[in-house]
Amino acid sequence: MTDKPKRSDELTDREREILKPYLSDVDANVFALENLNPEVIGGALARYSRAPTGFKETVAREFLNPDGSPNDVKGSQMIDRVVNKYGDDSVAELAVAPLCIEEISNLMTKVIEDCRIGGSPIEESTRYVLYDVKKDGRWRYVCPDNIKESGLGKAFVENMDFLFETYAAMVAPMQDLFRKRLTEDAFKIEVERDGKIQKAGRKSLEGENEIKAHRIAYNFTMRSAACDVIRCILPACTQANVGLVGNGRFYSGLITKLLSQDLDEAHKLAESIRKALNTQIPTFIKRAKRDDYLVDNHHTMRRLCHDLFTSAQIESSPELELLEDRPEDQWVNLLSNMIFPYVQHSSSQIRGVVKALSEERKKQIFESYIGSRQSKRDRPGRALEYGYPIQFDILAGFAEYRDLQRHRMLTQQRQDLGIDLGYSVPEEIEEVGMGSKVEECFERTESLHRDLKRAGMEQEAQYATLFNHFIRWNVGMNLREMGHLVELRTQKAGHPKYRRTAQMMASEYLTRHPEMEAVLKFVDYNDYDGGITRADQEARTARKNLASNLFDDQDD
């Protein structure tokens, strides 16, 4: 009888040979993996907790065929047993897959990126990419099938076409406006000469590469400045491309979440993601399905909150409010957090309404939110994360929310996109003579939004909101995340609007806690005139391009 291999056993020459295509260094204790199916990797890594052998011995003896090819079936069987039968979710994090999702709505990108743990997204940016060119004869927006097939399909398409035509008409005059504010002759890039870094304008450039670097940096700066302004009328249905790298647990949760949404686009996207990942990590996403518990809770809460707040007129509220939490108010504040995503009111107003309710009504809110849990996998929502030492209510444009949503070491809840909270129009719009046309964009879109809601498409109405329509969301965080967020989001290259939000967060907090100023030491409170926020950053980028002799001609 042959003894089972032990960790101390050395690899045979044959095992070393068949492992070489899959490891960066067969002899090292730290090595990278390549050319292996993610499910084989996940299955072999899962053995770490159950086998005395290391990864190399495990793969060679359990997951490779006699000819050295990967035994994909064995990997899938291991994952199926550990994840789907034993319920060991941590193992579902051992396989990672890259995924590209293209031509989805900006509304859907927020649903995806709201899944915070286990996935890293990168999104096509409306701050750098122009939407002034049609693709396959149509503008880049999503028209969901149920809207298209309704009596409002034609009106939806006409409205979105009008928005994009107006957007396209503003591209040239807006760039011209910024070119006047910062001329090409006045724009400088960083160059390195005689071992020293210095600024050089167009007249002092040396050689073709410096001239090219200057031109690319200037054009990109002007384009970005224009994009920052004219994106105000892009609708939530504007198409975007998203890149994702995530683990199996993340993707399983994402598919489940999408299938549990009320939007048809989400359901179709879930199946497209499943189809794509079935070629990479099929066993890891095998358990993903519509979560009836979440769906029922969501619908129950929406009905309940509608009954509670339908007659409560939305009160005016500040752009940003640092919420106060007294111990005696914790019950009311928790219930208010449960209500927040289902209404358009501020946390302060919600708390006032809830505080006046009977105890029986308060209990109804709690029981509705928790729902009928049948197992440990029936998990209530993020309202139960209430209790962070720092909590803000924020009222800002959807465009700014898109940038600030990315922070993951905190809890965020947002309300539905709508038109009830107002909107803003950048002053540059009037300067280029497009004020009345942009106002018409908002008027027409708001009319369409109301028509969609009257037609029973309350969730779909979100597609008919614009980037500068206000949205309300709340965030809870600890002091460390607070420092990270406000120091990062106030840097000069940031969008002026979200810089303002982050500056206000820092100011509000330090007014109440001045002793914490050292934690927020690098908040930039400056207000940079001209709206040209990326000039300095692009000047530095030009120097790096010159050093590497690599230029991104797409920025030209």
Write the layout of secondary structure elements.
Blueprint: H1 13-19, H2 38-46, H3 55-63, H4 72-85, E1 96-105, H5 106-113, E2 119-123, H6 145-148, H7 153-181, E3 188-193, E4 196-201, H8 207-230, E5 239-247, H9 248-259, H10 264-277, H11 292-309, E6 320-322, H12 330-339, H13 347-355, H14 359-370, E7 390-397, H15 398-404, E8 411-414, H16 427-431, H17 435-454, E9 470-477, H18 479-489, H19 496-512, H20 535-548
Antiparallel strand pairs: 1-5, 2-5, 3-4, 6-7, 7-9, 8-9
Helix pairs in contact: 1-3, 2-3, 2-4, 7-8, 7-17, 8-20, 9-10, 11-14, 12-13, 12-14, 18-19
Summary of the model, kept short:
Among the domains are: 13-91, no CATH class; 327-386, no CATH class.
Describe the model:
With 556 residues, the chain is of the alpha+beta class. Among the domains are: 13-91, no CATH class; 327-386, no CATH class. It has 20 helices and nine strands. It has helices at residues 13-19, 38-46, 55-63, 72-85, 106-113, 145-148, 153-181, 207-230, 248-259, 264-277, 292-309, 330-339, 347-355, 359-370, 398-404, 427-431, 435-454, 479-489, 496-512, 535-548, and strands at residues 96-105, 119-123, 188-193, 196-201, 239-247, 320-322, 390-397, 411-414, 470-477. The strands form three sheets. Strands 6-7-9-8 form a four-stranded antiparallel beta sheet. Helix 1 crosses helix 3. The longest helix has 29 residues, at 153-181. It is globular. The N and C termini lie far apart (71 Å). Mean pLDDT is 90; it is low at 4-8.
